Amino acid sequence: MFWKRKGKKKDGEATGEAATVTLDEARDEPDTAVQDGEGDADGKKPAEASSAGEAEEKKAAKAGSEEKDAAAEKSAEADADSEDADGAEEKADSAESEKSDEKSEKKDAAEEKPAEDEAAGGEEDTEKDSSADAEDSSGESESDEDGSDGGDDSEKESGEKAEAAKKREIEPEEPGIGEPDSDGVQRVRTAGALKVDDEEYPVVSNTWIVKADDEGVIVIDPAHDAELILEAVGDREIYLVACTNGYNTHIEAAQEVAERDEAPIALHRREVRSWRRVHGAENPPEIEVEGGGSLKAGDLEIDILPLPGTSSGTVGYYIAELGAVFSGDTLRAGELGTVGDGYLDYTRQLHSVGEVLLSLPPDTRILPDQGPETTVEEESGNFNSWV
């Protein structure tokens, strides 16, 4: 502490001044002694006085020097005491800081302990929950095993759908005869041209041959090549020829196919004019169908669905027993059917699709006049894009 050191130095200076004053007083004394000894005859007294004065001066000087040394020692001791005090204060501060840190560490440790306990408790709860989940999962697995038969049926059905989708992707749209499926439905593709307003559009059209019973079949939309269609029918009897509308892509081979077994031809009455353009007026269809009606052929019940749009008398043939609807040119895989390169009445056609075809069960097969088959579920996902 500087203020202590300065105070001691001031005391030392004061002591020095006092020594100087004493020295001056001692210097004054020889004069007095000389004055007193003026009457000595041999001059010895003044000499002695002078010698005594010098001795006093030396003594005073020595005393002053000793006092200065003593003051310096005291000042050094004071400084040491100050440093010791400072060191003691620092040690005290350090000790207090260490104690404070220890308390803080103990407090933090005390706070961490409950947190650890909570974490441990949380882990226990998690383990319990995991154990419970495992038990539930085990129970579900047992339940799944118990219902494995239902699961197998579902997997089989999904596999059949996937196989059908794959078949649609790889099967070429070229003239030919397809194999009958498990429901006895067979597709025959024939090449020709759609004739609309004196224009022709090359197409590959579908004709569907449906097993009605062990003896006979129904032929739907006989298109361009009667010989190829009859080859697919083989020795089976043709019970009925059903046409979805009067465009030539649906009726062109109808007369020849029906004649072989004298089968009746079904067509909406509004499509008779289109029929006459192809086959003349002398051989009209035997059955005039209406939407909402039904037909019976072999073991099959066929519901007639009104689907106006591509023409005013377009219909669909729905066989619930087979889970299949023959949609003609109203709805194809992924698109609304067109007439040539456009639509005759888009609004009515869209209504027929949304209100009639897509109201059937989702797994219903849609078998169109062109392209691969599809399902109600698949086309329901496309409907909003057509609106």
How does this structure look, described?
The protein is of the alpha/beta class and 387 residues long. The chain has two domains: 2-112; 175-386, Ribonuclease Z/Hydroxyacylglutathione hydrolase-like (Metallo-beta-lactamase, Chain A, 4-Layer Sandwich). Helices cover 54% and strands 20% of the residues. The protein has ten helices and 15 strands. The protein has helices at 2-36, 44-146, 148-170, 226-233, 248-251, 254-261, 272-279, 346-355, 376-380, 383-386, and strands at 176-177, 185-196, 199-211, 216-220, 237-242, 265-268, 287-289, 294-297, 300-306, 315-319, 324-328, 331-332, 335-336, 365-368, 374-375. The strands form three sheets. It has a seven-stranded mixed beta sheet. The chain starts with a helix and ends with a helix.
Q: Domains counted in the coordinates: how many?
A: 2
Tell me the total number of β-strands. 15
Tell me what the CATH architecture of the largest domain is. 4-Layer Sandwich
Shape type: globular
CATH top level of the largest domain?
A: Alpha Beta
- Which structural class do you get from the secondary structure elements? alpha/beta
Short description:
This is Glyoxylase-like metal-dependent hydrolase (Beta-lactamase superfamily II). This protein is α/β, with parallel strands linked by helices. The chain is built from ten helices and 15 strands.
